[in-house]
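job 3f2a | input accepted
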Amino acid sequence: MMFTPLHDRVLVRRIEDDEKTSGGLIIPDNAKEEPQEGEVVSVGACARDDTGARIPMDVKAGDKILFGKWSGTEIKIDSEELMIMKESDIFGVMA
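job 3f2a | predicted structure (95 res):
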């Protein structure tokens, strides 16, 4: 994949939830919610403040993150569905 986000944007691959409940029931596709967890694929260089100084990114490729339900924009790159969002849409990095 040859794509690098600009500025403070982050390219994210959603992490799919299990298709079964803890009791063993299978959840149909139309009843599932979009996952709010993802893995950072790539990040932009950085954001800049009002004076033009660089603000370093807090996330890096490979981080597992939690983001808002309506965050980002879905895009398709090399037939893979990914999301691009600003770093400020990310709630945190999961350990």
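job 3f2a | The chain has a mean pLDDT of 84.
job 3f2a | closed
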